[in-house]
Amino acid sequence: MEQTIEDINKQIKHCTHCRLHATRMNAVCGEGPVPSRIMIIAQAPGRTEDKEANMLIGPSGKVFDNLLYSADLKRENIYITNLLKCFLPNCRRPRRDEMNICYQKYLQKEIELVKPEIIVTLGYHVTKFIFSQNGLKAPNKIEFKTTFGQLFTAKNRKIVPLRHPATVVHNSTNLKKLSIEYTILKTLQSKCTYFDQCILPEKYKNGLITKDLLDKFCHGNWKQCNRFYAYSEGFQPNESILPE
Ligand code: SF4
Questions:
Q1: pLDDT digits 0-9 by tens, 23-33
Q2: 3-state secondary structure at position 230
Q3: Sign of the alpha-carbon dihedral angle for 62, 67, 70, 72
Q4: Does residue 188 line the site of ligand 1, with CB under 6 A?
């Protein structure tokens, strides 16, 4: 019989599969509707989450809710979970074996049950790990910041790396940067403004462009599309102009 999210959560609460069980107060389960169009994956519970056994409730939780609000999203309409269900002692970085075990035991099954169209990865380690699970090459640490707020497509799914809201708690001047990056979540809630007059959807129907291009732009980050830009400047883009 297929496992339910409740079955998985029961296992998480009593899990001892990696060393982190020895230092946690509570293992923290994912929260939100199943299925859900959007799934947000954070790294691991913080101190407050470890104590209260809830997702993103500490200081960064407040920042998170405000960023969602500015993207016209409500927390209750999104499935939110962690790559690691247990607190990392001294907030150290996650280890490969911990990520592999917790992913194979829990997160992978959550993804199967939640069936998200869009996976949002919060921060460097989660993004790098989820990229590797989806055959995407993560840029090196220096170039990594260019991935935040961008849309990647893999296995018929959209993956959007975003900075963790904790970066604002550590340094409030980051708020502006994150507010701009999180606007992609608003863009992803609708198809391109010029979808009905643009030639690209027709080209897709006629097999002249890939679904990946349609997903990445027309149903994706259409504000980054060359054709959208031309239309919004009042021009009729030439048929041969592609989104990128
Ligand atoms: S981090 Fe994951 S695998 Fe490790 S003990 Fe916690 S729930 Fe189990």
A1: 999 999 999 99
A2: helix
A3: negative
A4: no
Domain boundary among the residues 168, 187, 206 is at: 187
> What is the C-alpha to C-alpha distance for residues 100 and 86, in angstroms, rounded to an integer?
14
Ligand 1 near 80 CB (within 6 A):
no
pLDDT in the model for residue 68: 96
Q: What is the pLDDT of residue 141?
A: 82
The pLDDT tens digits of the residues spanning 73-94 come to 999 999 999 999 999 999 899 9
Whether the CB of 12 sits within 6 Å of ligand 1: yes
| pLDDT at residue 156 greater than cutoff 90 | no
Nearest one of 154, 216, 150, 212 to 185, comparing CA atoms: 150
Candidate of 81, 84, 97, 104 to mutate for ligand 1, largest count of ligand atoms within 8 Å of Cβ: 84
Same-domain check for residues 203 and 104: no
Together in a domain, 218 and 177: no
Containing structural domain, residue 145? 5-187
Contact 27 CB / ligand 1 (< 6 Å): yes
Distance 102 CA to ligand 1 centre (A): 5
Q: Is the pLDDT of residue 96 over 90?
A: yes
